[in-house]
Amino acid sequence: MKILFATQNEAKLKEAMDVLAPMGIEVESLPIVLHEPDEGTMAEVAEFKLKQVLEQGYDTVMVDDAGIFFAAFDSFPGVLTKRVFDRIGYKGIRKLLEGEVRDAWFEGAVAVACKGQTAIFTAKTHGRICDQIDDEMIPNRAIPFDRIFIPDGDTRVLHDVPLEERLRYSYRRKAMEKMAEWLKKLP
């Protein structure tokens, strides 16, 4: 089976290929620009993005949306993750979490359409924001929080976890595995 992945993020595309290929699903890039709302849940944003893709006439397609959440703040930054980081960077994150609980989680949603049916799958990766945040760190623009997020069960920030081990912690992998099972059950 072949599925289009509506994303312009090469890291997300590679991860989808790595996760889905062993399940017999070939992932092809669909690099289109999608509008992202600045409110709602990850699932609602993914559903909104999927509707945009379907309105353009594509089928057998998936989209995703993800964000980080700080336990110290209700539903924040969530869907605003990229916008918040772009504006305040590591310095702002350090100041925001000063004196606060450092527990955090990534949450992602994968929305898929196939054979006229749609579904949304969500997953989380729990962990914490490290105690030392260097304002001068150079972020990976696609995943800036990988330099400061320590997943539960590890002592390293995600950036220091070798690529072949990262899938073990991936919320996207978890959601895509659920999606793959759903796709297999379609008539």
TrEMBL record:
It comes from the Bacteria. Gene3D superfamilies: 3.90.950.10. Pfam families: Ham1p_like. CDD domains: HAM1 (cd00515). Keywords: Hydrolase. Belongs to the HAM1 NTPase family. This is Non-canonical purine NTP pyrophosphatase.
